[in-house]
Amino acid sequence: MKTPRKNQNHALTAIAEAVCGIICHPTGAGKTNIEIWSIQSEIEKAEWGFCVSAIIGPKIILMQQLMKDAYKELVPKLGVKNKEIMFSAIHSGRDNSEELNEIYASNGMAELDLNNFTSVDNIVAKINSAKANNCPIVFTSTYHSAERLVLALEKCGEKAAIVNFDEAHHLGGEESNGQFAKLPEQFSNVANKQFYFTATPVRTASKSGTGMENSKFGKMISLYKPSEAILDGYILRPRVMLLNVVDEKPKKEVNGEYADGTLGSDVSALIDGFDALRRTHDGKIAPKMIATMRGSKHLKGVVKNEKFKEYCALRPNLHTFEILSGHSAYTWGGAKIDGKHERERRAFLSKLNEICSNPTNEVIVFHYDILTEGIDLSGITGVMLFRQLNKTKLIQLLGRAARIYRSENGGTDDNSRVCREFQENGTLKTDKDFDHRYWIKPYAWIIVPSYGELGEDMSCMTYDMVAELRRYDFDPYRDIVIHQAGSTKPAPTLEQVNKLDEKKVKKVVEHLDRLSVEIEKQEIADRVGETVEKLEKGEIKHCFLEY
Fold first, then answer.
1. Contacts of 358 (CB under 8 A, 6+ apart)
2. For the segment 531-545, what is each residue's pLDDT rounded down to a tens digit?
3. For the range 179-182, what are the long-range contacts, defined as Cβ-Cβ under 8 Å and sequence gap of 24 or more?
4. pTM of this prediction?
5. Buried (b) or exposed (e) across 25-51, using 16+ Cβ within 10 A?
6. Exposed, middle or buried, 470 (CB in 10 Å: 0-12/13-18/19+)?
7. Strand ranges in 62-179 using DSSP code E only, listed in sequence order
8. Strands 335-337 and 194-198, how do they pair?
């Protein structure tokens, strides 16, 4: 059984003392277990008798993973207590009953009757069955189907003991266009407790907007900063590689397709970035990279490019994974493994985790807005951006690489712990525990192709990117490296480059200096705005801001 970390204990204590609130912890710091343990606490209060609880999230593939996580954590405890529990999924996907029943069987329990449905009447029947058998029931649901649970609870005249919203930034702001903004209020009528879990809370300018600063979400009851998680050794620090690609950035043809010849620079960037990623780990772990594509046509063009196919043929240990939205005709439902169609997304994810958990396997995952959130891929060593991402998607994608490496048997390798490179007193630690030469996976790499002369194309190195990474103890001068495509030399950091002699690098430095000034001004403005809000609400009587 897992033991709660200090940040998890803090969150669980806060949840026990509240009925509503936001838990903001970085990706990889263990939010999923907090959600499950808080549900377990409510089940224990009911003495393992009837009570309803739910975890709600944005995507089917994520909810399938959360169902499996809940099984692994709760079922062994049920076996010890000789109790029963019911699980149900409210979405259009299908959970792997055989795999989940194996967890039951390994704990000496009978097979579970797992159901997946979206019918309100079926949800009502499931709740009534749990009540008749005096056992707890745990629902997992997508945001798209969550209103069905509200209607079912109203029809039963029951209230959920606790409802946890995973990746809760989808409830407001830019991620969902406000389509799920009513869910917090709807559940407030049918749930005793509601909590909102996210690594990237969204704000909106208007007090009546859908941002998470509004009252329907409650207060921030547990905040764990990324820099704290890095120092505690729970996640990895980000590093950015600016990859100087000599060729021009590819452009779409009139028909919207990419001609095979025009994608040569993207393919070169992909190969060079992947090879550079391999060199950063000194052979301790093979490169495993997620590439964020510009769309299905772009993905198809790169994967089918002759140069890329020749590269893969020379590397028999290289595995490719492709996943797109369900309506993609190219992948017949959205997934391919080593070029072969895979209709079941949970099977795709299972195979991806299996391959990534082996440190000797090389992996490139091509996707478009599918694998940015919640999916636990601990072996990923870097991400590559072929298009600009908003700050929420960027940080969520970074979270796939920022997770501590976990071995094939699921254990954490102590040597993969992140280095506390710059301690509070500024002293560089060089002993075995903190020397990067001993790490298996030392950094979470973000690779940004820069086409033409370095510094001219900074479309991915945006204001939001630098501003958001600052929360991760990111220092542009020691955490940005410049790499020339095709070079086998170690990539120097901006701190190590002669900025006067290197005219190409000078443009990058000037750009970053301008951004730093803008970011600092915005941070001051944000602090002033937050203080004014607190004064207006009467949360503080007076204040003194020092700049």
1. 379, 408
2. 666 666 666 665 655
3. 180/143, 180/146, 181/210
4. 0.80
5. bbbbbbbbbbbbbbbbebbeeeebebb
6. middle
7. 86-90, 115-116, 137-142, 162-165
8. unpaired
